[in-house]
């Protein structure tokens, strides 16, 4: 655990509001999460990182079972800045994943918050143009972000107005 503690500080340096190492046993998946992408998000079927292209909840649950630790981090975005902030954080999280990988944690893999915005529009009929940066959203993979965050002491609440500040969650699986 001590060897991984430096990544908590790195997450803050790249723009996270909070970050902590967690046991993967606290990560919750559910089939209902992915269906909310299908019926509620206009990116369904339009991004290679979104359903139906992203890993299924069943696959995600099995994959998480092959890890013991994860770095969970949160960040905030003001109204009107959500897309730009997510894009910035998606890039930063992918770069942190790579740093962790280069430190010898070869199984490191990240999941972000919300749809990928590196290509607009995304060409779902061809390979990704940014495979080193694009990562699936936790929700797209069936992770119950609210329950997972609450399991590890991170407060998450539904944003009720477009005037409210949004809080987002990302995850880097580490082994």
UniProtKB/TrEMBL annotation:
Pfam families: DUF2284 (PF10050). It comes from the Bacteria. This is DUF2284 domain-containing protein. It comes from candidate division WOR-3 bacterium.
